[in-house]
Every structure is written in structure tokens, then in C-alpha cells.
Amino acid sequence: MLRFIFTRLSHMLIALFVITVIVFSLSHLTGSPIDALLPDDATQQQIDSLTEHLGLDRPYYVQYLTFLQNAAVGDFGDSTKWKGNTAAAVVLERLPATLKLGGLAVLISVVVAIPLGVLSAVWRGSVFDRMAGVIALLGQSFPAFWLGIILMWIFAVMLGWFPTSGYGGLSYMILPAIAMAWFQIAALTRLTRSAMLEVLDTEYVKLARVKGVNERSVIWKHAFRNAAIVPVTYFGVLAGSLLTGSVVVETVFAWPGTGLLAIDAIRGRDFPVVQSVVMFFAVFYLLANFLVDVLYAVVDPRIRFS
User: Which PANTHER family does the UniProt record give (predicted)?
Assistant: First the structure.
């Protein structure tokens, strides 16, 4: 088990190193931040002085090593748009809003998709199964931003049940959370259904039914316990996708999280904040998948030796 954990951890660190190279390279391809920091009538002396102060006159490999050293301790520099704040402080200030919205979206995805997938497998070929298939098809077809606008139009503008946008309590979170969770509900439903269909056709499930075991126990205790390996594997992708997908949804609903922060930082060419957001998303996504790999090995010991 320790060897398995060490192998997965080393893979995560390699992926993180590659991400730092990509983030550093893209930040330089988008142009120099000097243009955003100085006025149009700045003198050449001012430009040279700021370039030297920011270290942009040094070779790229030196700049990257400095960036890597600072990133290891969470230092991405000072924000150029939000004066007087470090980039990490700006991201951490917006982080709770994103975690609240993403947590609710994950909860909605699991609560809706797991029963829907299990019951559609149990009642295979029924009207319920066909309805679940339609929901899964539509869920994977609708873009999150389009669904968010439609939900806002119907439930906020026409019916007035929820606020159109902004930050607040649960009523402000329902529509954006549904918009974020809809695609994942579809994917998780299909995965759960296919896993349950495979398990329900096994000999030990048939034997349990022959012995007269209660059908509810057969489904949830015997079948779902073994079929849950597939949804558990997808949970890392689910958590990471919902968080990174917050960029679009938070922009549509003006939810002040890290997703909207990333858009504002890109518009303001605030490279330190953009780098901080991207690195945070990357670390969160990698950690989620690492924890799922470990949990997968606990659930199915065969994985440890594969």
C-alpha cells in the first residue's frame, strides 16, 4: 500500500511540475505586464526601471526558477489590479465562495445521480429508465453557461423564485449549483447505471435472491457496494471539474468566487492572480484524484498490485 501511495504521489508531483511550466510559459506568451502597469506616455527610463524591478530582463530559465521557488511557498507576487494585496491573498479571499458553491453542486450531483443510476438499472427498460436516459443525454448536451442563462430566465426573471445573480445565502446558490451539477449528474448517472447492470448479473446477486434475501438488501447492500467502485473513481474528476467549471457559471451569475476572479484578472492582465488561480485549480484537481486513487485501492485491494 505504501508503494502504491508513493507511486501515485510521484505521478502527482510530475504533473504539477509540468503545469508550472505551462503556466509560466502562457503568462509570457500573453504579453508583457509592463503595458498594463505603466501609462501610455511612460518614458523609456520608467519602462527599463520597472522591467528590472520585476526581473523581466533576466533569462527565461532564471525567471522560471524564481517563479518555481516562490510558488513552492505560495508566493505569486503582488496583484497589479487589486493594489496592496498579494495574489495569494486575493485568491484566498474569494476561495470560500467557490468552495460553498462547488460543495453544493457536488452534493446535488451525488444525491440525484446515484439513486437515479441505481433505480434505472434495477428497472431496466421501464419508463423510469428511459426518462433517466433522456436526462443523461440532455445533461451532457447542454453547455453550463447556456443552462445557467435558461435557469435564470425561467426561475429568476419569469417566476421570481430565486435572485438573478449576486452573493448571498442558499437562495443565491441554487441556480448556479444546478447549472454546475447538471453535466456531472448525467455522467454519474450513466456510470452508476452501467456498473449496477454488470453487478446485478453476477452469480452472488442471483444467489442472494434465490436465498430469499430482501430485495432492498440485495440492491443496496450486495449490489451497490460492489458497483460503487466506479462512481468512487469518478468522484475525483467530479470534484475537480465542478471547481474548475466554476469559471463560466460564476461569470454568468456574478458569483464572487475564484472563477469570476480569474476572468477579472485576465481582463486586467493581472498575471500574478491568474497564475495563483490556475495553480490552485491544478493542485486541488491533483489532490482530489490522488485521494480517489488511495480510496480506490482501499475499496479494491487488487488495484494496489496492478
Answer: DIPEPTIDE TRANSPORT SYSTEM PERMEASE PROTEIN DPPB-RELATED (PTHR43163:SF6)
